[in-house]
Design a protein that fits this description.
One of its GO terms (biological process) is glyoxylate catabolic process. By secondary structure, the chain is mainly alpha-helical. The chain has 2 domains: about 35 residues, no CATH class; about 80 residues, no CATH class. About 50% of the residues lie in helices and about 0% in strands. Helix 1 runs parallel beside helix 2. The relative contact order is 0.10.
């Protein structure tokens, strides 16, 4: 098992790399975007005998802690269930090197994405699917439907970014 010093090092590197501004990439200008809790995936390395290679994992985590995380590959795209065209557009903008437009679009997607993943989870995703004309359906136990106050907060996350 990895010791606390490794995880501490990774956490510091991630916070350093993920603390960015909306305008003025690292200049200190602009509004801060809270992307705490969003981490890139770390694959588990194995030895030839199918054992976890903890030495290699530790090495990978140290490398990970030094990256600026200006880009990413892959993702958990819950938001694509409701804003699929926009998520695909973000990929196209990145692939064609249109970084300023990609950054603007990404910043409009962060708040709604956080709402349907971390903040309201599956109940929030189901509710927004209903709003966008898809079938989200009722939540299965033990999940509960959103309260009216939560539903209004979710609606604001989409409305304030121009999606509703």
């Amino acid at each position: 098992m990895l010791g606390p010093q490794v995880w501490s090092s990774v956490r510091q590197g991630l916070s350093r790399g993920l603390s960015r501004n909306v305008r003025g990439w690292a200049s200190g200008e602009g509004k801060k975007v809270d992307i705490a809790g969003i981490y890139p995936p770390v694959t588990t390395p194995f030895t030839a005998t199918a054992e976890v290679d903890y030495g290699k994992l530790e090495e990978n985590l140290h490398k990970l802690g030094t990256l600026p995380f200006r880009g990413a590959v892959g993702g958990v795209c819950a938001l694509a269930n409701v804003l699929g065209a926009q998520v695909c557009q973000l990929e196209r903008l990145c692939l064609t090197g249109q970084w300023e437009d990609a950054q603007k679009l990404q910043h409009r997607l962060i708040e709604p994405n956080t709402a349907v993943t971390r903040r309201f989870g599956i109940p929030g995703l189901k509710k927004t699917m209903d709003w966008f004309g898809y079938y989200g359906g009722p939540c299965r136990a033990p999940l509960q439907e959103l309260s009216p106050a939560e539903e209004e907060a979710l609606r604001m996350d989409f409305t304030s970014n121009g999606w509703l």
